[in-house]
Design brief:
about 45% helix; about 5% strand
C-alpha cells in the first residue's frame, strides 16, 4: 500500500460527481495558493472546508502534473505548497497556465467518463460529444461562443441553488472549445 493509497479520498467520492468534485477541489486549491502564496494540506482544509486527506491528495496530484511545487520549509512534518515558479523566458502567463490546467482537468474527466461509463445508471450511459469544423471569421467565432453561453445560462444557477435542480439532475461537464485550425508549420502556402 502506497502513501497515495492511504491518503486518497474514499471510494464513494470516486464515482458520482467524481470529475466535478475533483475539478472543484483542485480549482479551490489553486485559487487559495494564488491568494495566500503557500499552504499546507491542513491549512487548506481549514480554509476550504474539505478534509486534510482530500486536500493532501489533490495537492500531490497538482504537483505531479507540474502546476504546484513544494515550498521551502524548515523541517517538521508540515509540507507547504506553492504555485510552480515558471521561467519567465519560457513560461506562459498565469492566465495561459490556468487555461492549460483547466483543459487538462477536462481531458482527465473525459477519460474517467470513458473508463467508467459502463458503471453509470442506464439512463446516463450515453454522452453528447460531438465536434464540427466551420469556416468563421474571428467575429463569427465570438458570436458562436456567445450563443453557446446564452444557451447554457438558464442552467448555471443550479450549482449554487440545489433546490432549483429538477429531480434526477446530475452534474454534467459542458466543454466547448472554439479555436482556429492553423496550417501545419511545414505548409508554406498557409492553406489548411
Amino acid at each position: 500500500m502506497t502513501e497515495d493509497d492511504l491518503n486518497s479520498p474514499p471510494d464513494r467520492t470516486r464515482h458520482t460527481g467524481d470529475a466535478l468534485r475533483e475539478h472543484e477541489v483542485r480549482t479551490a486549491l489553486l485559487d487559495l495558493l494564488a491568494e495566500v502564496g503557500t499552504v499546507t494540506a491542513t491549512e487548506a482544509a481549514a480554509r476550504l472546508g474539505y478534509s486534510s486527506g482530500l486536500c493532501s491528495f489533490h495537492l500531490r496530484q497538482l504537483a505531479r502534473h507540474g502546476h504546484i511545487e513544494e515550498a521551502p520549509h524548515h523541517g517538521g512534518r508540515a509540507r507547504p505548497w506553492r504555485l510552480r515558479r515558471h521561467d519567465p523566458d519560457h513560461g506562459a502567463s498565469a492566465e495561459e497556465q490556468f487555461g492549460d490546467l483547466a483543459r487538462g482537468l477536462e481531458d482527465e474527466s473525459w477519460q474517467r467518463w470513458l473508463a467508467q461509463r459502463d458503471h453509470a445508471p442506464g439512463e446516463w450511459r450515453h454522452d453528447e460529444a460531438f465536434s464540427a469544423i466551420a469556416y468563421l471569421t474571428p467575429e463569427e467565432m465570438s458570436r458562436v461562443a456567445d450563443t453557446v453561453r446564452r444557451a447554457l445560462a438558464p442552467y448555471q444557477d443550479r450549482e449554487q441553488r440545489p433546490l432549483a435542480r429538477p429531480d434526477g439532475a446530475r452534474p454534467v461537464a459542458l466543454i466547448t472549445r472554439l479555436f482556429p485550425l492553423l496550417p501545419d508549420a511545414a505548409d508554406e502556402t498557409g492553406r489548411a
